[in-house]
Amino acid sequence: MSKRPCDPDQEMRGIITRDREQKQAQDASAADRRGQERERQRIPQAINALRRSGPLADRTADAVWLDLLARLLSALADASKGDLLKRLPDRGDARRFTRRCAELLAADRRRDALALLEDIGPGELDAALASERNAEFPDDLCRLLDLPSPQAPPQHSGSLSLVASGTGDEPTANESSADRRS
After folding, report:
1. pTM summary value
2. 172: three-class secondary structure by DSSP
3. Is there a contact between 95 and 132 (Cβ–Cβ < 8 Å)?
4. More confident residue, 133 or 95
């Protein structure tokens, strides 16, 4: 059996082609890993954004909070954890409002959720919602997901600045819900 003579140029092109294919496969694998890592981080980032949405005494504007809640719901749904809110412990009226807002957002009824929140006046419910939004809700989610507790909310004076996604598209709110309701 005789071996055919090999065309050296064709052999070199074959080596180059295999190298390019290997590099493309490595790049695709690395991109998949980066995408999976970003997905894993979406829920903790959304929870931390809720926690950092403002101090308890100066509650975040309702519209901004609903946007943050919608981001969280989207991240939970993408991770097949959409039923997690049903497993949250009952914390009274404030938790019922949070659940109702989540239901309205899921039904694409954001305006109804916003109107519901805007009807709340200064009082015990207003204070309970502030605690729910910035502490109890994020902490309970972390416990259910076995995540570290989010960072404590920053102490603000004057206007309120929110970090919603850490991507530079941070919404800001210059007034609290209580200020608008006065």
Report:
1. 0.61
2. strand
3. yes
4. 95
